[in-house]
Design goal:
alpha/beta, nine-stranded mixed sheet, 20 strands
Length: about 475
């Protein structure tokens, strides 16, 4: 049996008939027809994607409503990724049975980071799931045709953590080339198993039979199944693959990390429901021509949100950075340089000292330029209006450029005062390089409070900065500039 429906390629809206405009996201001509089929394989094979386990979970006794006191819960032991930065973003490590979606621009280092995690996890003493010995022997006959001799299945006598790396974009030889660049001695890593396969049902069957300690799917957009219509990467295929892998993770208690592509707007490609289905959404950002890589947590059911991990990309792969001030603060700065000031931004629970640079020059065009890098352009225009109104800076005929050193993007309003003082320093040619500014600036020119002020000040003093300006020391922006003795 098959049914025809129309699904929006942008948001995943499902409609029984074709519509010119999607009522959910408002996009035109984005609905595509696809047929959903019920495969005999899914009903005939009791072991297909854990059907027997699903029937147990769906029994009446299991779905009986319970009170909170009747529910028994225990703290699950997390798996360490080997990177303290990533463990902090995840809330302490990978939770067994969780599903993580890792997205990022092409070439930013997603596959490299996951391969390093696989190497780190394979060295840990992790006991595999129970009753995996019989499943491993059965799996040799089931998927032997899809793997070469180098893709042997996990040894049931090996008690260390085994990692299954499913590569849908590259062959096993290409994955090995990258692995040799990251780890020179591949002979000691006998617990990483590569499966170059794009069939969703085949991958799910392999996971169920082998029961590794961690599964990495690179990437979810390359998975496809004959049970669903459409090409790989379509809404129906992505949604089907994600639901199958999530089902496997919850039933077998195996964590799964899925790599996701991004659109040209920087959003996760595929239906929005993909981000809602998974437990954690991570985003790896960074420019291709710089070493800095920042891992952000956009969603996390088992830990804090908006935490970041800071890495640097080198020839040997990703390296975590425990001293981020070395990346965001300019070294060997002349003592009397103008247009530079230090501010403290909060990224999750971490206080980061960042350098904000401002440059003001006379404009030769009727409409002066306003260029920002690392901060919101509209926020810059708002602060320029405050400077012209309340500090009486004649910036209407000036080109203004603002940059956050190190390539970090800031959305914390506590850097508003630093932006204003950097512009003022460049305009008046006054040095404020040893000053730390921490405050939000309102439209009335007043300084507003920010969160975790004590933690920000403590971090600044730890690095030797003593002249700290904040909303606790001054009430208005005009008062700050006058106290500096420059007006």
């Amino acid at each position: 049996k098959s049914s025809i429906s129309f699904v929006c390629q942008e948001c995943g809206y499902d409609s029984p008939q074709w519509l010119g405009k999607c009522p959910e996201c408002g996009m035109w001509n984005s609905l595509r027809e696809f047929k959903s089929q019920i495969s005999p394989l899914r009903s005939a094979s009791p072991n297909f994607v854990g059907q027997a386990n699903l029937k147990t979970l769906e029994s009446r006794e299991d779905v009986r409503p319970k009170t909170l006191n009747e529910i028994k819960s225990s703290e699950k032991e997390r798996l360490s990724t080997g990177f303290s930065e990533m463990d902090g973003v995840l809330g302490g490590g990978i939770v067994p049975g969780s599903v993580v979606l890792l997205a990022g621009d092409p070439g930013v280092g997603k596959s490299t980071l996951l391969l390093q995690i696989a190497f780190n996890l394979s060295r840990n003493k992790v006991v595999p799931s129970a009753s995996s010995g019989q499943a491993l022997s059965e799996a040799k006959d089931t998927i032997g045709a899809t793997r070469d001799s180098s893709q042997a299945l996990p040894d049931q006598n090996d008690k260390r953590g085994s990692v299954l790396y499913v590569s849908g974009e590259e062959s096993a030889e290409q994955v090995k080339l990258r692995s040799s660049r990251i780890n020179k001695d591949l002979k000691t890593n006998k617990n990483i198993f590569i499966l170059s396969l794009t069939n969703t049902d085949g991958v799910a069957a392999t996971i169920e039979k082998t029961k590794p300690s961690l599964v990495i799917v690179d990437s979810i957009q390359t998975m496809e199944s004959e049970n669903v219509g459409g090409l790989s990467g379509s809404v129906s295929q992505v949604r089907y693959a994600a639901s199958q892998f999530i089902k496997m993770a919850k039933i077998l208690n195996i964590p799964i990390i899925m790599v996701g592509h991004v659109t040209k707007e920087g959003m996760v490609a595929g239906p929005m429901v993909l981000s809602h289905m998974v437990d954690t959404v991570l985003f790896l950002e960074g420019e291709k021509f710089t070493k800095l890589r920042i891992l952000r947590s956009l969603k996390n059911r088992f830990g804090p949100v908006d935490e970041i991990g800071i890495f640097t990309m080198g020839e040997g792969g990703m390296k975590e950075t425990n001293t981020p001030e070395q990346l965001f603060l300019t070294k060997n700065v002349p003592p009397n340089v103008t247009g530079s000031i230090i501010s403290v931004a909060m990224e999750g629970s971490r206080a980061l000292l960042v350098e904000i640079q401002g440059l003001v020059v006379s404009s030769k065009i009727p409409i002066p330029r306003r260029v920002s890098s690392g901060i919101d352009y509209k926020r810059l225009e708002l602060l320029l209006a405050v400077l012209q109104k309340h500090v009486l800076l004649p910036l209407s005929g000036m080109d203004v450029f603002v940059n956050v050193a190190g390539g970090l993007r800031l959305s914390d309003p506590a850097v508003d005062l630093g932006i204003c003082l950097a512009i003022f320093s460049s305009f008046k040619n006054v040095s404020l390089s040893n000053t730390v500014a921490i405050s939000e600036v309102g439209l009335l020119g007043e300084l507003r409070g920010v969160t975790s002020l004590d933690k920000r000040i403590k971090e600044a003093k730890k690095l030797g900065f003593k002249n700290i300006v904040s909303f606790d020391t001054h009430k208005t922006l005009n008062e700050v500039i006058r106290s500096l003795g420059k007006i």
